[in-house]
Design brief:
The chain has 189 residues and is of the alpha/beta class. It is built from 4 helices and 7 strands; from the N terminus they run αββββαβββαα. Strands 1, 2, 3, 4, 5, 6 and 7 form a 7-stranded mixed sheet that branches. The longest helix has 18 residues.
């Protein structure tokens, strides 16, 4: 009975801390340099579909920074938009950085995906953020042409803040897709 009480108390404290979290606006702009020319895609126009969130969380906008040693949440933040939308936006910006003309309809290729992991940790006076997402490239007929798990992990000095760490990790995630030779064979070759 006492264990159930402690579990209920812990869950209620987590709910309170998540709802009382500081709001964090991330004005993400792709800052990488993948060097890929997407201005000509011979397989046809590309659409980047909405991204889902496969994490086991009912708070798609919440991010907690944990202490490296003990795993305890140090700070909690409420993002200005769901992280899955930030991942999609990062990929769109990466394509546009390479000269792509993306479409909303009339596509022959569709890139879809879902956020699978978000982890942030404070260690050695740096904030490290890890973001993982699964992506699929399909043809308009539904044939799967490419599937992969993207991975972005970057650290920034603690004084630069969580937003800078998330942005750096999104850059790395975008680059992990655009440096994949098999993906490029499906889109630009």
């Amino acid at each position: 009975m006492f264990c159930k009480f402690l579990l209920a108390l812990s869950l209620s404290l987590l709910t309170v801390s998540a709802s009382a979290a500081e709001t964090l606006a991330i004005d993400y702009r792709y800052g990488g340099d993948h060097g890929v020319d997407f201005s000509s895609m011979p397989r046809g126009p590309l659409k980047v579909a909405a991204f889902g969130d496969a994490r086991d969380s009912d708070k798609p906008q919440f991010i907690a920074v944990q202490n490296a040693g003990d795993g305890e949440a140090r700070d909690g933040y409420q993002l200005s938009q769901p992280l899955a939308e930030l991942v999609r936006s990062a990929l769109v910006q990466g394509f546009e950085n390479g000269g792509a003309s993306l479409v909303k309809d009339g596509e022959k290729l569709i890139l879809s995906g879902e956020l699978t992991e978000l982890h942030s940790e404070l260690k050695n006076a740096e904030i490290e953020v890890t973001i993982k997402a699964k992506v699929q490239l399909s043809s308009q007929s539904g044939s799967q042409l490419f599937s992969s798990t993207l991975f972005g992990r970057q650290s920034v000095a603690e004084d630069k803040g969580l937003a800078a760490a998330v942005s750096a990790s999104l850059d790395a995630l975008v680059d992990s897709l655009f440096w994949d030779d098999y993906f490029l064979m499906q889109v630009v070759d």
